[in-house]
What does this fold into?
Amino acid sequence: MSDHDYKPKSKVGQWFNDRLPLLTLANHLTDYPTPKNLNYWWTFGGILTFCLITQIITGLTLAMHYIAHADMAFESVEHIMRDVNYGWLIRYIHANGASMFFLAVYIHIFRSLFYGSYKSPREIIWILGIIIYLLMMAAAFMGYVLPWGQMSFWGATVITNLFSAIPLVGEGIVTWLWGGYSVDNPTLTRFFTLHYLIPFLILGLVVLHIWALHVPGNNNPVGIDIKKPSKDTVPFHPYIVIKDGFALLMFMIVFAFFVFYTPNILGHADNYIEANPMVTPAHIVPEWYLLPFYAILRSVPDKLLGVVAMLSAILILAALPWLDTSKIRSAVFRPLYKQFYWILVADVLILGYVGAMPAEGLYLLIARVATAYYFLHFLVILPVLGFKERTLPVPLSITEPILGGSPNLAAARHRESKTK
Amino acid sequence: MKKLFKLILILSFFSLNSSQTFAAEKVEYLKTDWSFKGLFGKFDRATLQRGYQVYTEVCASCHSMKYLSYRNLSEEGGPEFSEAAAKAIAASFEVKDGPNADGEMFTRPGKLSDKFVMPYDNVKAAQAANGGAYPPDMSVLVKARGGGVDYIYSLLQGYEDPPSGVTLDDGVYYNKYMYGNKIRMAAPLSDGIVEYGDGTNASVEQMSKDVTTFLMWAAEPNLEARHQMGFKAIVYLIILTILVYFSMKKIWSRVESEV
It folds into this structure.
């Protein structure tokens, strides 16, 4: 932000800005040169910020009425649903908000994969993003435990038990996590505490994520470095603000549909049964956004190796900037990578599907093949592809593409049809 | 447009995914027209009032409904009994209260602010009286079962003689919609088991529909408010989206690029 020589107009503004340059920051955010060819997949960053703020505000309100106690948690949730003014609305926004948050983050991550946004010089942005994603999963998992329904209780039991796979100290760690010899009140109270804490950690990391983004600036669909500011960029305000706003409104319509018309479809019916340590549900399933990793966990016959595979599946993403050896960022100019990209998308969707199914027979076989392919993609295909692939010529700038083709193909076609 | 299509595809995949979980175990449930489904779905007051009658005369002898209060019966969006009627209903129940100034527990007639009186003092007592099976609390029962209202509606009508080869223990009944087909509850409804005040014929089918609707309201007392607010919210969002779309087009017309 040192490239700014901003001087507030008013005397008071100058006085304040000399002491705390908040106005310089605001000016930087307003003027921030953004590639003008960003498509709608780039609007999910703003949407995610909205999701985080929504979760924090609704979460704070819920926390005022929720009671973190094994004997009272379930009842207090019903109290919120029935007796608190608009409590049902706040809770449904919060519960569905978690799903919408993950929907948006998956789109955000897969956008990054398609356009190579994780590559140099944006590795730190990417790694911060992976940490945020990990924290999101932790927050979502612990939040799902709080209503203290059957799926809360048994989900918590299954997931915390994963730590028992660690050799020697595993059992001790699980007892330590639980605060006892089974999932019980001490587990609930600490999960509540951490569920309350994590969103603020995420908020801090989001600030770093955006800060790191503002150093090199946005990647773009063409995936080339651009001069800033130049004919290739537009100031963030009003151009990107209004575009993000439009996309956010579209997103909110989908969000509202879930909240008002199918508020429980993304949850599990068993979680409306109060937790009962004596009765195990027929199928213990995590929330949909964790299903691909759940499938990977269950596809490995050994418990420890299953946990290792599941964790690796997430952590491997952090190494992605170095696993992808291609110099070209955008899949637009990588014909082979583009195909492998869509296979990966299908692979993850398949993993999610089999994750919801019982781990037996054909489902288990599919899960194993899909798990193997997931790792194959990152560990073999990506590194090799960088050397083998014949990429298409990349334009020099967004506005003056070489070889006659505009990087924004749709725009070019549109212009051509107008001139004809 | 192609991208939007892909997004919708992914979205629908997930909704399919969650609703078809364990599809292999599903049986076709009986279908009926639920007035509360759809964008403008509302409860039918008469149905809810009849449903309450079935609940209180039949179900409530074993099943508690501990998160509801008598005042809920006269609230907007519910059975909407008059306040006097709800007071009379509450007063017809004996509520244990206390301790009084002498340190004694005592019973008094129920008030609007009281929770629904439970048939048993605790889970153990309920199990003891029902051959070891606990009749689940009905406050959120509809939401706690995978098939929701269709499941409950079907279950109530799903009692039949066991197919040959299936032996049932004492106190176990055959129900084709129950998970595993064995249920510890005897068929609760039979034609004419309640006498409706409004003259409606109390067939098993009619009572099943009425009481299931009542259970839906008990689980989602704010359903009507939710539907009404949802419609307004979405209309508002759509209008705002259109306005913002045109503002965006205007602003971006200064730049040679598509939005």
